[in-house]
Amino acid sequence: MIPTDARSRWRWTGGVLEDSRVLHFWDEKKKVGRLFADKDPDSDDPDVVWDAYYLYGPDGEWPVSVPPALAGESKPGPLISSGATVRSEAEELKNQLVPLLR
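RE: above sequence
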């Protein structure tokens, strides 16, 4: 999500996100990054969020029937936890995630 990003250079998982249930996606057009953007004026790109997590539980779902005018504004829910950067919030993410895996 920064100007130097390139799919060929993206290899970091740090051993943290290596589970058969985890999927990694490359958002070339930044669609998800734009959807979740908080419009941070101090960001290199305030219209795109990156290096963040959003955790949804087993009841989490993306709204299916959203009017076309609001399609870019709809987000899944209910949100359990979120944070950034992923590495700095790893312990909090773990604390929120482990109970869901039981």
